[in-house]
Predict the 3D structure of the following.
Amino acid sequence: MKAPVLEIASAAALERRLSRTLRDLAAIGDKRAGSAAGAASATYIQDRMNAAGVGNVQLESFRFASFVLRGSAFRAGGRDLAHEVLAYSGCGPAAAPLVHVGTGEPADYDGIDLSGRIALVERNVTFHRSAQYREAVARGAVGLVYISHAPQNLIQIGTVSDPEDGLGPIPALSVGERDGKDLIAAARAGGITAEIRIEAALQPATGQNVVGRLAGEGPPLLIGAHHDTWHVGSTDNGSGIAVLLELAERLAHEPRRRGAVLVAYDAEELGLFGGYDFLRKHVVEDGERFAAFVNLEIPGAGADDVRAVAYTPALEAPLRSTAIDELYPVCVGMEMVPALFGGVVPTDIQGAYRWGIPGTSTACDSPWYHTRADTPDKVDLPFLARAALRWRRMIANLDSAGDEALLAPDPHLWTLELGTKHLSAGLLLEVRARRAGGAPAAGAEILVWLDVDDFTRAFRANLRADDSGVACVTIPSDALERGGGGRYVHVTAGESWPLVERILPLH
């Protein structure tokens, strides 16, 4: 009887440790990137990693433009409604009829004229709100009302537009599910007019990644989770940080062969900034190689919530041999994620995946997602403890895996080659795109943009490759001279989804 008693005691102790982290993070409050609470979160994680024995844990800063709400109002059918503004929404007034367009996917607009109207869009677990927003803008909407899918008429919030581009083109806000159903019924019954007013601005802000390292042989593992949150954010993503810190403790004291880099990313909720900042500094500029990434994006939520994991081909065998798919019944290839979410991989490792680093990421959905009620009591602690133990086993599998098996190219990703030439008019960029297998990507759509001040977009161009898969563009001098700080050219291409991405630092 001793072994079971010890196992139960050990599980209970693990749950207490995870619970402690969740409660500590909840006490810090709303940990939005660039806020005082966000900085306090980074310091807390740094202290915990150092105490765990990781050692020499660094804070790495980056700059971005923070969304600051000055005021808002929403009136529909003659009454004022509770709402929250979606981050990086457009400003100004909008008064127009509401038109219900389902979950805002392209097919939902069949037979609907949205020009000059306000889109009434329901939350979709997969089709991301930023994709819903882009679609509404493309269809001529003058505003967007997002209907939450949370209990108790709670309002779900989040980013709705690309923060690097500044404020979006149309105002957008979120309402509770009960109020949203009333609006849908009124729109279907003969029409309802709504009035939106949003006043917002951008101001310079600083985010902080927390980076700790454990020495070892060969390319290390990259293990991370984002620490910024909307509201308290216990499931998203206090649960990920709790598991990350538990793994830090275990890896610092248990035998292993590979090194590990442990990262708590910042500003994931705003625009995946922390993940891209780490990729730029360590992979692109310093030339670091990683055997694989493990990303803990909501690794555990409530008892009845959707539990998913995505993986690149190189990690399917170690993942299934660890029975991760038993914990996360929705188990899919990473290439499926952007196809489902409207083009994005909505978590920190989008850049790492597009770069070609193999890896895996969790993703759970909770009814309390992005609401004020996402508190520690919403996390299924027994499940989170089982997940922490299972991911420790997964990391042990990756520790023993051969480098060649992990670093094989992902067959779903194209390749890109970049060439530059300085001209009086600016920087000439030549892009050569090849399909998986090496054939020229004739006629490929290629997107190029320039970020200055780390994450402020100064230039964007959509290109079409010629028959040899080559496209050229000149980034004008005035764009190159804007801003300061980190300057990076990004290039993406792909059949449709997923995209390959390359980054060129300019210094």
Observations:
- The longest helix spans residues 2-28.
- The chain has a mean pLDDT of 95.
- The two ends are 65 Å apart (CA to CA).
